């Protein structure tokens, strides 16, 4: 069943025509109502009238996360604050987050794309959707929530965490669809097994997993253990939240809802636009949003775009699963962390050398963060008790900075590898490509 056949099965020429019309409107609106865009356009000597074809989009400067932070909190809004009905922020915990503002119409669009995403996963009005994405400023919880309402299915707004309760609800309410991060899905599967819960006790048929990178191998594991169809859902706060793209049952890439979001791929080094089929950084432009139109947002996510009719009948362009980032952003248990935040916490502490390494692992299917840092000779020669105290204090400081628990290991001075070029700060052992 296709949710919105008109929007999802258009001929390419029709799609392009629609995109161009919407693009011209959104560019005009951004220029007229967002001082940031007006200045960027004026500085570059371009005007909204210069956008006569979709290819003209390349003339528009790219927007970065830093640009959005610079406009914190509400500088990117294109409508008076009276018309903003909801705000969300990106999932990082320190520094200024990026803020996303929605009008009533934006929430409707978000609800509709999320309903389409759920439909791609086979959801209908009859389904019971256990929504384990976090509710709050994070877009995961409410995004799925709105989509479920729009579809008319039943949502269980249980939010993230509390695995015992999740299991109880899975059994008692016989949830048919689950929404959470893929790593949490694997963790849940493991706990279910430990507790002797079998497939006869639960009733899951599909899961919408996203908000972090995952692999085909992880899909196979999740499907084997939870006996469901594991589908990939992609999105980001700056653009709308979840519901930018979704995999259908073919499981061969994610359909981008290109009537609302215009995708491009650029070379992250030269910033040149690349043709379909080439791997690079995904850049997205919102085509329908009123509250916060975003032109050419650098997602930093690495993928490939491909066009062609899918076996499912949709003609929407597809993106491959995300295989990397063009910056050093990490997502740890769904939370955005930049190594520089950890560095900032470390450098404030006397007795530490500015040599550290961040090791990310995924034992038991949940992310763990270890920070190895060189202590000064004085600190390491100190009594064990003091070293332990120092370790705890550093762990606490990092926790305050990034909002996540980490384990710190103080290592001997000069023991971490030195590099002649870019220091290798992060060793991510989770393997995504
Ligand atoms: O993670 C929105 C979301 C919620 C998506 C629930 C899917 C499900 P942010 O916290 O702003 O928003 O993080 C956005 O997360 O740029 C990617 O790097 C990463 N990401 C999101 N979905 C996927 C995915 C939400 N399916 C950032 N695969 C994005 C890989 C993903 N990475």
Q: How would you describe what is shown here?
A:
The protein is α/β, with parallel strands linked by helices. It has 2 domains: 1-325, ANL, N-terminal domain (Rossmann fold, 3-Layer(aba) Sandwich), CATH 3.40.50; 330-432, GMP Synthetase, Chain A, domain 3 (2-Layer Sandwich). It is 32% helix and 24% strand. It contains 12 helices and 22 strands. The chain has helices spanning 5-8, 12-33, 35-44, 65-70, 104-120, 139-151, 163-172, 182-194, 216-226, 339-347, 377-381, 384-402, and strands at 86-89, 99-102, 128-131, 154-156, 177-180, 206-210, 229-236, 241-247, 254-256, 261-266, 273-274, 280-286, 297-303, 305-306, 318-319, 324-325, 330-332, 335-337, 352-361, 368-375, 407-411, 426-428. The strands form 5 sheets. A 9-stranded mixed β-sheet has the order 4-3-5-6-7-8-9-15-14, with helices on both faces. The chain has a 5-stranded antiparallel β-sheet with strand order 11-10-12-13-16. A hairpin with a 4-residue loop joins strand 7 (229-236) and strand 8 (241-247). Helix 8 packs parallel to helix 9 (216-226) and helix 10 packs across helix 12 (384-402). The chain is globular. The model has no long low-confidence stretch (mean pLDDT 93). 5'-O-[hydroxy(phenylacetyl)phosphoryl]adenosine binds at residues 90-91, 133, 139-140, 210-213, 232-237, 241-242, 299, 301, 322, 331, 336.
Question: Summary?
Answer:
This protein has helices at 5-8, 12-33, 35-44, 65-70, 104-120, 139-151, 163-172, 182-194, 216-226, 339-347, 377-381, 384-402, and strands at 86-89, 99-102, 128-131, 154-156, 177-180, 206-210, 229-236, 241-247, 254-256, 261-266, 273-274, 280-286, 297-303, 305-306, 318-319, 324-325, 330-332, 335-337, 352-361, 368-375, 407-411, 426-428. With 433 residues, it is of the alpha/beta class.
């Amino acid at each position: 069943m296709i949710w919105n056949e008109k929007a999802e099965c258009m001929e390419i020429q029709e799609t392009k025509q629609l995109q161009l019309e919407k693009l011209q409107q959104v560019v005009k609106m951004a220029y007229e109502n967002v001082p940031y865009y007006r200045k960027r356009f004026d500085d570059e000597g371009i005007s909204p009238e210069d956008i006569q074809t979709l290819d003209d989009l390349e003339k528009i400067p790219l927007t970065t996360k830093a640009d959005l932070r610079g406009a914190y909190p509400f500088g990117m809004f294109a409508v008076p604050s009276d018309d903003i009905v909801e705000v969300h922020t990106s999932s990082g915990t320190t520094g200024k987050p990026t803020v996303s503002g929605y009008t009533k119409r934006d929430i409707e669009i978000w609800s509709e794309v999320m309903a389409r995403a759920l439909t791609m996963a086979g959801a209908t009005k009859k389904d019971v959707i256990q929504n384990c994405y976090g509710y709050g400023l994070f877009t995961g919880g409410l995004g799925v929530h709105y989509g479920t309402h729009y579809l008319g299915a039943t949502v269980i707004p249980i939010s993230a965490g509390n695995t015992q309760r999740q299991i109880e609800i899975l059994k008692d309410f016989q949830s048919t669809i689950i929404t959470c991060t893929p790593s949490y899905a694997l963790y849940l599967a493991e706990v279910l097994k430990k507790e002797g819960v079998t497939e006869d006790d639960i009733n899951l048929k599909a899961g919408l997993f996203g908000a972090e990178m995952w692999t085909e191998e992880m899909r196979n594991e999740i499907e084997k253990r939870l006996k469901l169809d594991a589908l990939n859902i992609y999105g980001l706060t700056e653009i709308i939240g979840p519901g930018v793209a979704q995999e259908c049952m073919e499981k061969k890439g994610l359909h981008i809802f290109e009537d609302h979001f215009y995708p491009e791929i650029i070379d992250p080094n030269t910033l040149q636009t690349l043709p379909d089929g080439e791997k690079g950084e995904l850049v997205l432009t919102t085509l329908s949003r009123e509250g916060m139109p975003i032109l050419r947002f650098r997602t930093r996510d690495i993928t490939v775009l491909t066009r062609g009719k899918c076996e499912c009948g949709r003609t929407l362009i597809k993106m491959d699963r995300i295989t990397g980032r063009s910056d050093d952003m990490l997502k740890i248990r769904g939370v955005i962390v930049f190594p520089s935040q950890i560095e900032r916490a470390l450098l404030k502490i006397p007795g530490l050398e500015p040599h550290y390494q961040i090791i990310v692992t995924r034992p038991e299917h949940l992310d763990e963060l270890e920070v190895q840092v060189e202590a000064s000779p004085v600190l390491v020669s100190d009594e064990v008790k003091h070293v332990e105290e120092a370790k705890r204090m550093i762990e606490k400081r990092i926790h305050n900075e990034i909002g996540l628990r980490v384990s710190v290991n103080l290592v001997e001075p000069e023991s971490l590898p030195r590099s002649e070029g870019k220091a290798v700060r992060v060793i991510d052992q989770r393997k995504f490509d």
